[in-house]
Amino acid sequence: MNEETDRIHQKNIWMLKLLVIFYGSALIINLLVEGSFSAINPLVSLILLSIPALLVWIKRWPIFTMLLTVCFLFLFFYFLIAGDPYLINYIFLGFAPLLCLFYLDLRAVLLSGVLYVVSSIYFFYQLKFQTLPEMSSRDLIYIIVFGIFTTIFSLVYTKMMQKLWFRAKSSEEQLRSTLEDLSIGIWTYDLSASQLSVSKGLEHIFGFNAEIFSQDAKQFREIIHPDDQHIFDMGQKELLIWQMNTVKEYRIICPNGDIKWVQNRARPHLNPLNHLIRLEGIMIDITERKQMEGGIEFLAYHDELTGLPNRTMLSNKFEEYCKRGYLPIAILFIDLDNFKDVNDTYGHAAGDLLLKDIAGRMLELIREQDTVCRLGGDEFVVLLTEMDEMRVVKVADRIRASLTEGFVHHGFNLTAGASIGICISLEGTGTLEEMIRQADEAMYSAKRDNGGVYKIYGEIAYTKE
Fold it and tell me: Which UniProt key words apply to this protein (predicted)?
């Protein structure tokens, strides 16, 4: 079935239920008035109910079933009026076209209008003297006009409702398409039925059929990153216990192993008695935003070219090490000796690649807890902790020796010697700026000695001799 026929099929089910209700009501009324149940011949009742019931049950020809049900509805009133020709039953016949409005289908409405006019004319002449003895033949025109007016009204109403439904459906589809394109999913959790309903947008986020959560909502927690499950649990507590709106961001693990960031915006829904009956919300894929935020944060603390920590990160590390007592602290101020020649000879692109290679080599020569920072240009600073002077000198020697080995760029061997100034603080006195300044002075002293060497400034509490 397509969407239209499925909708008609569902309405056929409800119309069949209405027929059963009308038949039951007729039996009760007949029992109260006549003292018997036989308002309509039992065989006729069985036929009127069984044929549409069979068609509904086999789910075949829903449009034909709709039109047949409309006909059977009028047959029901025909046998009802023929069996008990009371005025009230004749009046009930006027409700038949209104009942057919339930379908909101022009075919059903037009058929019911025609059947009503024909039935009204038939019963007017057949039962005129029994039910309408005071009416003349001229009054028939009013009955016909009423039937035509009812039919026209029903057609206009149906057409108007179809347009409204189509607009609403189009808006819903546009909204759904937009939400899916934006990787936004909608979910609703019915507490009484323990049923989770989700939209197609969640499938785009999760990468699999999210309908499995409808069977067991607890499975949703299993796809949340283990380190973020406490965030999800806090959101559940805010919804279920505190009954407040909540916005939580956490990571999920997709079936292919990808890790995505999602934002879950949820709110509790209370009934008029202030009882919690439903949770509903939207889930948004914010992976790109998180990556952008991470990139912005990375650039705030790192050099854009080499990826090394910048001066801000170096300052934070220095303060952290001093507070934790990671002493002694040493600063190595490194300045490349012939970097300008590389730029002038091979171009700035070669110079940038050389800086990246130098950064990579220095990272390989220090421990994980130490820090290599690029101040700018061809100047680097290395922050070492918990090393005596001898070990600091060994690190400086390794760096200087590694840089003099040279680098290969497009078949050319590039060399980058370095002058290194060292400043060591045994007790962590002084500031980072003082240590950098004094290491810089030691570096310039080494550069004046033709470069490629290192010099130690000494304890920063002392003055240079």
Answer: Membrane, Transmembrane, Transmembrane helix
Classify residue 19: in a domain, yes or no: yes
Other residues' Cβ atoms within 10 Å of the Cβ of residue 231: 15
Per the CB < 8 A criterion, the answer to whether 364 and 401 are in contact is no
Q: Name the token pair of 226.
A: 């283990």
Q: Considering the domain boundaries, does residue 317 fall inside one?
A: yes
Q: What CATH number is attached to the domain comprising 396? A: 3.30.70.270
Residue with tokens 């409800």: 14
pLDDT, tens digit only, all 465 positions of the chain = 566 787 888 887 887 887 777 777 766 766 676 666 555 566 666 676 777 778 778 777 888 888 888 887 777 777 777 766 666 667 777 778 888 888 888 888 888 888 888 888 877 777 665 556 666 667 778 778 888 888 888 888 888 888 888 888 777 777 667 666 667 888 888 888 888 888 777 777 887 776 677 666 677 888 899 999 999 999 999 999 998 999 999 999 988 888 999 999 999 999 888 889 999 999 988 988 888 888 888 888 999 899 999 999 999 999 999 888 888 899 999 998 888 888 888 888 888 888 998 999 999 999 989 999 999 889 999 999 999 888 999 999 999 888 888 777 766 777 778 889 999 888 777 789 999 999 998 888 888 776 555 667 654 322 233
Q: Are 132 and 220 in the same domain?
A: no
* Same domain assignment for residues 421 and 280: no
Q: 68 and 51, same structural domain? A: yes
* Distances from the Cα of 46 to the Cα of 43, 67, 78, angstroms: 5, 19, 15
What domain range includes position 337? 302-459
Which CATH number fits the domain that encloses residue 271? 3.30.450.20
pTM above 0.85, yes or no: no
Q: Which of 141, 175, 209 is the last residue of a domain?
A: 175
Amino acid of residue 10: Q
Instruction: Extract the tokens encoding 411.
Output: 């078949």
